[in-house]
Design goal:
Blueprint lengths: L1 H5 L6 E10 L6 H4 L5 E3 L4 E10 L8 E5 L5 E4 L2 H20 L5 H12 L6 H10 L3 E5 L2 E3 L6 E7 L5 E4 L2 E4 L2 E2 L10 E6 L7
Antiparallel strand pairs: 1-3, 1-8, 2-7, 3-4, 4-5, 6-12, 8-12, 9-10, 10-11
Helix pairs in contact: 3-4, 4-5
């Protein structure tokens, strides 16, 4: 499906990196390169996705999701379906990673938050009513140090001119996506104010 996106002009689709993570423990600049009073969200991410959004309506794939951890591709008709799938992928791995399962709907909520708004419409309000807690939004890479053990999602916009598709590979500045790279593009983060392990 990625090759189909390569056949349309760059201004007819949107491209993002979605990064989900969990700010375990206190600030730790030695291990996570945290900032003085904020978690460095980039260094606390565990799940990574590429998201392409078709604006032509002609590709039979409104939302193309590529799991950057295993390169699996999947198309979705709505952002709700997309968020639900990410929630299931991440939740299935969370117990092995953290010792407790994080509810799929918690992941779903932060994804929907970055794609739309953290609250204020029926779909998101229904999610938050189910699991509790509050979501906040920020721009940049920092999450306040008060948000220890906070689940979050980053939405990194890859601008036109910086991206390309070649040989069924998505490239940034003509290179494969580097998950260790701190891409200096517009970044939106939606994060929980409380620990989702308690939900």
């Amino acid at each position: 499906m990625l090759e189909k996106f390569s056949l349309v002009d760059q201004d007819l689709y949107l491209a993002y990196i979605l990064r989900l993570g969990y700010t375990q423990g206190e600030l730790n600049p030695e291990v996570f390169e945290d900032f003085d009073h904020d978690f460095n969200a980039v260094k606390h991410t565990y799940w990574n996705f590429l998201l392409l959004i078709d604006e032509t309506g002609e590709l039979d794939c409104d939302f193309l999701l590529i799991n950057l951890n295993n390169q699996e591709e999947k198309c979705f008709d709505t952002d709700e379906d997309l968020a639900e799938k990410i929630g299931l992928i991440c939740s299935d791995l969370s117990e092995d990673m953290f010792g407790s399962t994080i509810s799929p709907i918690a992941f779903e909520s932060v994804v929907m938050g970055v794609l739309d708004e953290p609250d204020g419409y029926e779909y998101m309000d229904d999610i938050l009513e189910t699991i509790g807690g509050e979501l906040l939004e920020t721009i940049g890479n920092g999450i306040p140090e008060s948000c220890v053990n906070s689940l979050f999602c980053m939405l990194i916009e890859i601008p036109e001119g910086e991206r390309s598709i070649s040989n069924n590979q998505f490239l940034i500045k003509n290179k494969n996506i580097d998950l260790e790279e701190n891409y200096n593009y517009h970044t939106k983060i939606v994060y929980f104010t409380e620990d989702v392990m308690t939900y």
